[in-house]
Hints:
The protein is an alpha+beta fold. It is elongated.
Amino acid sequence: MKKKISSLLIIMTLLIIPLVNHKMITLGHTSEDSVRVGLKAYYEQVPTIHIKNETIVVGYELEDLWQDEMVLESSTGFEFYPANEAYFISNEFVTKYNDAKEITEKLSYEGIEAFAGSVSLGMWKVYIPLDGFKEEDYSDVLNRIDGKYGVTYHQGSDNKYRVRMNASEYSIIFENSFDHPQFITTDASEGINVLDLGTRQYRGKIEIGRYGKEGITAINILPIEEYLYGVVPGEIIPSWPMESLKAQAVAARTYAMYYKDVAPKYGNEPYTLCDTTNSQVYYGYSSENENTNKAIDRTKGEMVYYNHSIIPTYFFSTSGGHTENSENVWSATVPYLTGVPDIYELEPERRPWVKVHTSESIEEALNRYNVNIGTVLDIEVDGMSNAGRVMTLNIIGSEGDYAINKETIRVWLGLNSRKFKLVKENTPEHTIVNVQNSHNKDLKLADDLYVINGNGEVNKVMDAEEQFIILSGTNIDNYPTLQSDNGEFIFVGQGWGHGVGLSQSGAKGMALHGYTYKEILEYYYTGTQVK
């Protein structure tokens, strides 16, 4: 029988931390359900990008329909880098690569290096790089070639869009000023066409450009469901229960579509999402897992809605007993991001942690953010949320005080979460805890409490090496047993992440207790519906 989250649950436990081809390929795939993912982790503003496949297909996406231009082959793959030199560029264009290539070959017989260049679908020009000539010779070179083979030229400088591609026996210029070409491959891995960029591999299409900058950037364009194949296994452990994987799949899909369509983060960039935690971790085909792919397929198209609109489905690793209200982490109060008890989190995800800071390390942390208050003399906790997270830390220094609030605490001090207790030199040696049972609620010294472990052994609570925890029906509390020496500030905490929305560890625990993915999501996102 499925258990419910309610009623008082009292458990006290002792925890010790221990070449070129003209074959055409028609895809006929529209871009409506696709995402543009900036590959920031390895392929943003870099000097070169190497597609290692031996065959790629060049095409353009025009009016939301991808249309192929030609097939390219190369035994050494395809290397892209900025074409940042000046060129003589033909004023006329031809409709086929071979026609442009024929002109470049004629020029080469005269000792002039030239390349075919793709401008848009069925539009090819001739590009003559000027870096092999002295500037005072430009006019003579232009007079020499202008009008030859029916082509006239103008001089063009670096437009910060143009890219050059080198293959085994040829090079091509991609203008990129009008339309950016995209690349797919006919090379298959286990029946799936996968583009190999070396460090990572990707489904779908790759677009490579400069987008007004010096370096080149790769963007992965692919259907949302295939994008999720490379997201979910990077955000959750694929061996976890299927219902928790499905919950993560729906949350990841909703989050991506919200920031793609409702509240775009990258208005000044050529992509709508990226592959880092600024959007969601995305490793591409390289990380796909059978279990998470099944979870995505079984929830295809489903998202989380509040009042018939999709929401930003924030998620994090572990709450440490209770999720948090949005206003206690950021600023706005959001009804579907309200903290809830999170008591199904399991080991090792809910295992408490310890972080030791010195006065010097606190000073260094503040200095990184241009805050200088001299020598750190003391730290005081000022306010806790109902869920047990520290709201403000007052740092007392020899040259003034400084208050760190909300998530700044976690980020600046490198803490796993804000659900912690602070131990310092003047912390009382005796810990007083709330002890509850079905009849009463008392305050007792932890020194007077005992626990029975799974082997039936009785241990005194204060014999715990670092801390012990108490699990109730609404939260998990930790009580440090450490003492501070030499002015150290010891942060003894629980949880991992900001604490807002879906607890991944909690979803795992709920799934093991029989909850479905819809029940899990609708629990953590208050008042929502999965459909």
